[in-house]
Structures are given as structure tokens and as C-alpha cells.
Design brief:
single chain; 348 residues; alpha/beta; nine-stranded mixed beta sheet; 14 helices; 9 strands; globular; binds succinic acid
Length: 348
């Protein structure tokens, strides 16, 4: 391409100036600050509590570090799906993830599956007390030898069962194939009800439902709706039988290698993003439920108190079964927090 003499001179001058600048920097020993890129991969849609909080973290982190950090978001399993993403984090192919803690079993850290125990949580307040307290800290510490640092717990509320047939009482689960995450507690829960658990990556669930490979699954409604699973699930039972907890995690070596001021700024951004995630999760799920009802493809059925108690009694043996795997003390410590929260509620 030919340049006119007018446009050519500024280009020459600009090139010369920037060479002088770089030269001066090198001469003075000051290297130009390099942009630090954080690849943040996750498996859900951008318009879920996790997807929105990841976007919030990106905005806050980039602003707080004045552009020294760039956060690249990869939602919807576009980079890695379940199973692959933890490995990618460990080898440094991505720097940040926010997986469901139900997926930590294959890492050899089974204690996180305590969050999967059916009906161990009656309310979100208990979950927050547990994750924000000593239990949360001790669990995150278990990731360190795996080359992973835990930064925060996020959550997506209670999970509900969806299926091609109605699931209203424990006996309805007999022979029903249900997709689960890679957690032995979730597998035992489905088996306890007489169903057939099938571990499968989140990104594959819609197609598996559509093709009848599975009959149903358990999800918070925001995940069900944003993956369009309601289009291929005729029934949804509001069972609130277990809770979906996430851990925001980073590659430990990467994190420890950050300049201290950058790390402090990112920790602040993570705190604020966590507050934001907690503030929106319940509403996102309530809105998704309204949208599922509006779509008219899925019959929604809510368990009443008596039915919930029946399900709970049917599933409690799973707690006992996993005492030796998860640790009796850990399970008991969650019961204690739950009792404390209940006591405080009664006093109000
Ligand atoms: C997620 O919310 O990250 C997905 C959980 C699942 O695999 O069901």
C-alpha cells in the first residue's frame, strides 16, 4: 500500500518516538509492565449467578488493577468441560475456575462432598456460616497440596429434580436414570431412592435428556433454564434436597507469583464479586422458575412439608453411609452450625 508523504511522516515519527521510549526504559532498567492475563473458565451460561459474578469479578479486577490484569471469561464449557477443567488449572492452561465442589472427588479430596449430603441444609444462612467459617477454611486448605488455592465460596441455591416422569415420592425413582456430577454422595443418594445414577459432564446433559440417555437430573433452576433443559423435561419437583456450592479456585503457583499489590487488588475484587453473587443467586433462581412455568413445557410440583419429611427420612441413611469417607466430625460440625442457626431463628 502506498502512503502519501503527509501520512508517512507521522508514522516514521511515531515509530522513532516509541523506539526512543523503549530504549530509554531499557537503559534505565525499567521494563514496561506486562499485562497479566487470567483465563477464567466455567461450565454454565453467562446469565446465571456464577456467570454474572464472573463478569462482575472481571470488571472489578480490571478496574482495581488499572488494566494491569485482563480477565478473559470462557463460559458454557467453551474451553474445558467437567473433568478437563481441573486438570487444565493444575497445569496452568487456565488460571481460574469456579466448579461445583461436588466435582472435587476425582482430585482425591472427598470431604467437599459433605455439601452433597441430602437435606443437610435447610437454608442458605447455614451454608454461608459453614463456608465462611472454620469448616470452609479447612476444606480450602485441602486443595493446596493439589497445586490449587481456594479464593471464595460461591453458591447457586438448592437443587431440584427434573425428569421425563413425575417424581413425587421416593418410590417414583425406581429404575429412573439420573445424571449426576462426579460425587459418590450424589450417586448414593440416587441409589438410595432406587434410581440409576449416571455421571456426565454438564455440557452433555441437554442432549442426553433429549435422546433419552438419561431420564432426568438435579439442578438449581437457573441452570436448568439457561441450558434449556425445561424444553426436554416434562416434570420438575421442587425438592430442595441438596445444595449447589462452588469454590472459586486458582492455580496456586500463578497466584503466589503475582506482584503483592496486584494480588491484594484481586482479593478485594473477589470479595466484592462474592457479595454480589450471594445477593443475586436467590432472585436468579426465582426468576428462572417463573420463566420455566411461563414456557409451559414442564409441570412444576412442590413437595409439601409432610412429603419433604418423607424424602428426608428415606435419604438420611446416606449421611451414615458416608461418615467413614467424609468424616463423622465434619458431618457433625455441620449439624451443629445448622442447630445454631435454627436456635437463633426461633429466638427472633
Ligand atoms: C455448575 O453450576 O457449575 C454446573 C453444575 C453441574 O454440573 O450440574
Amino acid at each position: 500500500m502506498l502512503h502519501s508523504i503527509d501520512s508517512f511522516i507521522p508514522i516514521v515519527m511515531r515509530t522513532l518516538l516509541s523506539s526512543i521510549l523503549v530504549g530509554a526504559m531499557l537503559w534505565s532498567g525499567a521494563a514496561p509492565a506486562q499485562t497479566i492475563t487470567i483465563k477464567f473458565s466455567h461450565v454454565v451460561a453467562p446469565d446465571t449467578p456464577k456467570g454474572k459474578a464472573a463478569e462482575k469479578f472481571k470488571q472489578l479486577a480490571e478496574a482495581a488493577t488499572k488494566g494491569r490484569v485482563k480477565v478473559e471469561l470462557y463460559p458454557n464449557s467453551q474451553l474445558y468441560k467437567d473433568g478437563d477443567e481441573l486438570e487444565a488449572l493444575q497445569r496452568g492452561a487456565v488460571q481460574m475456575l469456579a466448579p461445583s465442589v461436588s466435582k472435587f472427588g476425582p482430585l482425591g479430596v472427598r470431604e467437599f462432598e459433605v455439601f452433597d449430603l441430602p437435606y443437610i441444609f435447610d437454608n442458605t444462612e447455614t451454608v454461608y456460616r459453614v463456608t465462611d467459617g472454620e469448616v470452609g477454611q479447612k476444606l480450602m486448605a485441602k486443595l493446596e497440596p493439589k497445586g490449587i488455592r481456594g479464593l471464595a465460596f460461591w453458591d447457586n441455591g438448592f437443587k431440584e429434580f427434573s425428569c421425563s416422569k413425575p417424581l413425587r415420592k421416593p418410590a417414583d425413582f425406581r429404575g429412573v436414570k439420573l445424571r449426576i456430577q462426579s460425587s459418590k454422595v450424589l450417586a448414593a443418594t440416587v441409589r438410595q431412592l432406587g434410581g440409576v445414577p449416571q455421571v456426565m459432564a454438564f455440557s452433555e446433559v441437554y442432549t442426553a435428556m433429549q435422546q433419552g440417555v438419561v431420564d432426568g437430573a438435579e439442578n438449581p433452576i437457573s441452570n436448568l433454564y439457561t441450558q434449556k433443559m425445561h424444553e426436554v423435561q416434562k416434570h420438575l419437583t421442587i425438592s430442595d434436597h441438596s445444595y449447589l456450592v462452588y469454590a472459586v479456585i486458582v492455580n496456586r503457583k500463578f497466584w503466589d507469583g503475582l506482584p503483592p499489590d496486584v494480588r491484594t487488588a484481586l482479593e478485594g475484587a473477589m470479595k466484592d464479586a462474592t457479595r454480589y453473587e450471594r445477593a443475586i443467586a436467590a432472585k436468579e433462581n426465582a426468576d428462572a422458575l417463573a420463566l420455566v412455568k411461563q414456557a409451559g413445557t414442564t409441570e412444576v410440583y412442590a413437595l409439601d412439608a409432610k412429603q419433604r419429611e418423607e424424602w428426608k427420612q428415606a435419604l438420611l441413611p446416606v449421611h451414615k453411609e458416608f461418615e467413614s469417607v467424609i468424616g463423622r466430625d465434619l458431618i457433625q460440625s455441620i449439624y451443629a452450625v445448622a442447630a445454631q442457626v435454627e436456635q437463633e431463628r426461633r429466638k427472633k
